[in-house]
Task: structure prediction
Amino acid sequence: MAAPAISIPAPSSKTESYVDNKRKEDIRQANIVAARAVADAVRTSLGPKGMDKMISIANGEVIITNDGATILNKMEVLQPAAKMLVELSKSQDAAAGDGTTTVVVIAGALLKQSLSLLSAGIHPTVISDSLHKAAIKAIDVLTAMAVPVELSDRESLIKSASTSLNSKVVSQYSTLLAPLAVDAVLSVVDPAKPDLVDLRDIKIVKKLGGTVDDTEMVRGLVFDKKVSHAAGGPTRVENAKIAVIQFQISPPKTDIEQSIVVSDYTQMDRILKEERNYILGMIKRIRATGCNVLLIQKSILRDAVTDLSLHYLAKAKILVVKDVERDDIEFITKTLNCLPIANIEHFRAEKLGYADLVEEASVGEGKIVKITGIKDMGRTTNVLVRGSNQLVIDEAERSLHDALCVVRCLVNKRFFIAGGGAPEIELARQLGAWAKVLHGMGGYCVRSFAEALEVIPYTLAENAGLNPIAIVTELRNKHAQGEINAGINVRKGQITNILEENVVQPLLVSTSAITQATECVRMILKIDDIVTVR
Amino acid sequence: MAIERIFKDEASEEKGERARMASFVGAMAIADLVKTTLGPKGMDKILQSTGRGREVTVTNDGATILKSLHIDNAAAKVLVDISKVQDDEVGDGTTSVVVLAGELLREAEKLVAAKIHPMTIISGYRMAAECARHALLQKVVDNKEDAEKFRSDLMRIAMTTLSSKILCQDKDHFAKLAVDAVMRLKGSTNLESIQIIKKPGGSLKDSFLDEGFILDKKIGIGQPKRIENANILVANTAMDTDKVKIYGARVRVDSMSKVAQIEGAEKEKMREKVQKIIAHGINCFVNRQLIYNFPEELFADAGILAIEHADFDGIERLALVTGGEIASTFDNPETVKLGHCKLIEEIMIGEDKLIRFSGVEMGQACTIVLRGASHHVLDEAERSLHDALCVLSQTVNDSRVLFGGGWPEMIMAKEVDELARKTPGKKSHAIEAFSRALLAIPTIIADNAGLDSAELVAQLRAEHHKEGCNAGIDVISGSVGDMAELGISEAFKVKQAVLLSATEAAEMILRVDEIITCAPRQRENRIHAWKMICTSFHQGGNFVPILTS
Result:
């Protein structure tokens, strides 16, 4: 038995009233230190002037990113409490999509304060309870600061999307990407369910070549594939009738293993002829419905098309795209407003989709297929992301995802709030004031948490190369005078009214960051032992 | 006088005092490990797996902690077992039972040191346990007759159980959830029909109870997304071609058209099967296995909602709640029992789409959807809610209720003390010790909350000297409080199970006077090791082979 047995301490005598809590304190301290180390690792990537991290993965691949969730996800942390912070960033990603760095930095700051509270001899559950109370109060404060926004107010939506993009590598393209993100999200909002946005309805296609400038939103469908064509096949079809098929245009194949016995020369000829007829028969049926574009689902069992069938399809002037993934079928059928066809017998005109134009376009080195002008198009959207190298494209995709999430947050909860550290400093001020009216240890704890929240403006200033202490004190001063929207203007390097600077973010991102960070910190505080189990 | 070795190499034997000490120490170590999780201000533990992925679990649940430990001490294993049994039987009190057993052994150790025979201690403990149970029985409150009061009892029990868990901040919300769910069961203790779905995102407060069944699957493409008055066929069948399952079977033909024919025939078979299924007069088909493109299209054409790849748990439960049977052949439509429900529709929770079956045949069924920040939170929330549901469903059957907050322990301790005074002989020492062990529970609750336990327990004891006292430890304000006013209640069944199984476990460990450890299996030589296992079986040894990779 290689498994370590639990260590059995000597039975401590119960007669003494003093309980030895050394081990528990040690565990708690170790947890907090580890979690803070994680928070410190991503701290420098916060804000518009935050730095990027280069992560080289074990298999030699390199990622350059500014996205907290991605950095933490790739960091292979082992310490359990540190893992919880990684999880925290993931869940912020799921809930709000943006603010993944912020949430970890806040959690780190709260832990730092908790550590000093613990060393002052305050019981962890007291700290945990006050933290909960403070979080509820913080949400109230944030909600009071929020400004309502209408979905018709495109300008405001773009402002908040560009705030999110400003901290990324692709910040110089924010004027392009922000409206794109807003339009993409708004185009998939179903008027029947105005509060719901399913980001799966937005498909991001990445294609190497060009620059991020060339990124575009396509009202229609884009495939990162070539048209499969033999000599003379069409690569551009107008007034397309599109069929999504889940069968293959190739010689028949049974599920049971098969073999064709050829005993003489004449038979061989016949078989070849039969194959030809079989395929021709299929194509004739397809042609009969007027279909001129085929999208063929990928099959692992047999070839989607053979040279022979391609040849005939080319003659029939049918454009073919093969190897469509099964997972994409739903998206495609939804977009084209058609039904998938699983058998040649069911090939009927009413199952087809219609589009004005299907064409193969060459983009950079490769080629893509674009379907535009779809009749009765479903509520879906495609975004074609371009970039000069794979790293940029990947980062652009991640940034775009964040921007999409930001817009989605605004659709879900139609409020936004000032950025640039303004909400945090206001929280710190109001919580600090509130702490003074609280009784007992709660008040002491809440005051520490209020101070902890100042980490966001502090870090923003620090990352921007400003003097953090001067900036934060000035900010405090401004807020004390009632300018609740005063924040750090990183571009100008001074304090301004941040709402006027168009630096806004959705309320949901801030509230979710506060609740998730406190929930995580409370969980870490409540832990007093790490037990190794099987 | 030198005695030949009786045992094989490496096998060891511990006798008498040493054996007893070893089991005491092991049991107490286990009890000490979990005792910090006791009570509303108990702490959590991180369980770090040594397995692949080094997964991390954060928990406060005694049973979960204990069952995942590596243990190499016989007595400790007994305690883990009683915690498991407590979990299966009543669902809650898994920590209390271990802590009480540990305290009983701690007291027994002192008595043994004072040269009192283990058997005397055992008989004393037995008398004390019986007396304690009586004391509880006299104090129970039963509100079964009054539905209103009974419900408020249930709410209190749920809140008390949840207050020591992660859900404590939203305990009102979850207590209501749990009580509603259990009340729907109408007295059955079958928790199967309460389904718990975990969806990350949102906060714990967003969790809700849904009167119906939710399946975390997708509806096939091009099929109706909403069906009223659904007839559901639940099946476990392969929807691809019925393959000839003989190895090496193959088709031998001499022309391409024949291959096409066979392919056509295969398709035809699939179609036939689908036709047969449709002939059941259904409009919803749920299959455990994959439904391929071709049948999916056929179903779509027939306007039938088909759900593929519903996991095993999913279809069993679905069959249970809709009142259908799981079918795998479709030749006799009249014999197959279909499931029914009023409405099937797609709903969206967080980012995911799920399918809801509402108005199901079995009215007891419901689904609790848990939302929370991360997987850790959700897993722990599920465990906590499960505890609450267990306790509540037990209480619905046995509606006797006690106060909580250390109140039952004080009542028992008082009665046991009385008994000790009346009992002549050495036994009285053991009975007294039992009462001290009982007092340890309120002491630990107070200790965990960072309160002055000695002071509080002394105050509590003084309070309990009065008749009809409801005093217990109010952890929130850190003083002695009235449990009736604070609304802290516990189920009698849980307390009784804690008392009796802890006593039994302590008794069992006390009886031990020799521990024989069998020789470990040799690692280097597998064949040799196997021989050893075989021989040890032949010799009637209790060698438990442990599979190591």
Remarks:
- The first strand of chain B starts at residue 12 and ends at 15.
- DSSP finds 17 helices and 20 strands in chain B.
- The two ends of chain B are 44 Å apart (CA to CA).
- Chain B touches chain A through 88 residues (CB under 8 Å).
